[in-house]
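Hi F.,

I've been meaning to write this up properly since the lab meeting, where we talked about keeping a consistent format for the predictions we share between groups. The idea is simple: the sequence comes first, exactly as it goes in, then the structure tokens exactly as they come out, then a line or two of notes. No screenshots and no reformatting. I'm using this chain as the first example so we have something concrete to point to.
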Amino acid sequence: MPKKVVPEAERRRRRPTRQGTVLSEKQIVRTALRMLREHGSAGLTARRLGAALGADPSTLYRYFAGLDDLTRAIGEELMGRALDSWTATGRWRPDLRALGLAIHTSYLAHPQAALLTASRVTGRPREIEVDETILGILRGAGFGDGDAVGVYHAFIDLTLAFAALDAGALAVKDEVRGADEGMWTSTYARLPSETHPHIAATAHLLADRMNLSAYPVVLDTLLNQAEERLAAARHRAGGTG
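Output, unedited:
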């Protein structure tokens, strides 16, 4: 059975750790993010986390039910940072686009954490706040509930899928990433037109684009479709579109 998490008011350490830090859930999450950046997911253990915090590893279980619970808290932190960096304008499409880019950017700032958490549903307050915000933008724009949920589903899955994809490229060693990126000029650009006419014809364009994230382009495609769906719904309802 998982250990029972001690309520916030009861679990705060009254004395600083050996490093002079007064522990909190946020401090543990931030330290875990640093450990993921430095050591990857395999390096995130209760023992290592305790050592980094200057506390006994068992201290972790006063704040989280286990490492999986900590993983959800890390995902929530990335979502919360995205929301904190975003400002609403009251225009649904620019607001949704900006929020998607903010989430994508927040995850790519911590690629190892992104790989660990992008596929998770945390059910924690900041993640719920992001979901409420997205649905509020869509319903406020006039999308019916069914369409709002459909666009939300596509939007959040697209954003997190690209976050994981792009984080994967950032998480590998620099020399490995450099070799992968160089393939577009070292290999693809040298393929003969006799055997690969389509690649040869577009090789210079591939080299310019393929090392960039396609997320903004695909996001705009999704938003175009959503805008068309909203206009069609307004037309059916007798609006002006």
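Notes:
The two ends are 56 Å apart (CA to CA).
Residues 8-14 have pLDDT under 50 and may be disordered.

If this format works for you, I'll send the rest the same way.

G.
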